[in-house]
Every structure is written in C-alpha cells, then in structure tokens.
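Input record, target 12 of the design panel.
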C-alpha cells in the first residue's frame, strides 16, 4: 500500500486540526494587525494627526485585546480538548489492588 492510499490515523487528523486551527487564528491576528496599522496610518496622516492620539490609543487597545482574546481562547480550547482526549483514552489501574481496569469510561474485569 502506497503512502497516497494509506488512510489517515486519528493522530494525523488531530495534527491537521491543530495546524488548521492555529493557521486560522494566526491569519485572523494578521488581518487585525493590518487593519490596525491602516487605521493608525490614516489617522496620523494629515492635519488632524496631533489630535488623533486618543483615537489611536483606542484602536491599538482594541486590537491588542482582540488578538489576545482570540489567541488565548484557541489555546485554552485546544488544551481542554487535549486533556479530555488523553483522559478518555488513557488506561488506568485503580489503587485498590483489584484486577479491574478502567478504559474509556468502562470498568472491565479480566
């Protein structure tokens, strides 16, 4: 079976999801930065540039808040998802000494 015919594994799919999500967040951050730069440039160009400092500060504050919130939300959701997947998939042995194994939320007696 060639590499092109191989079915993607769950790990491959998870990696693709993570990379795609990160790419979307970074693209959004770049768009916000470009819009902010354009607005600041427009406000500083012209005769009213000396009175535009309050507007510039407002624009920059909003942009940094938006970027920080969006990026933090992505990494927070990603961390919670990874933790949930790890806890679901992990096989744990109880400390009580029994031969029971906990796997995917089920108690199995061998």
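The sequence produced for target 12 reads:
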């Amino acid at each position: 079976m060639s590499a092109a015919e191989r079915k993607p594994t769950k790990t491959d799919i998870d990696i693709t999801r993570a990379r795609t999500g990160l790419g979307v967040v970074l693209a959004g951050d770049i768009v916000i930065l470009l819009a902010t730069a354009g607005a600041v440039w427009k406000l500083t160009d012209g005769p009213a540039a000396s009175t535009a400092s309050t507007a510039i500060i407002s624009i920059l504050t909003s942009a940094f808040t938006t970027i920080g919130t969006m990026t933090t939300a992505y990494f927070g959701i990603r961390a919670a998802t990874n933790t949930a997947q790890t806890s679901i998939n992990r096989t744990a042995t109880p400390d009580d000494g029994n031969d029971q194994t906990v796997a995917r939320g089920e108690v199995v007696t061998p």
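DSSP finds two helices and three strands in the chain.
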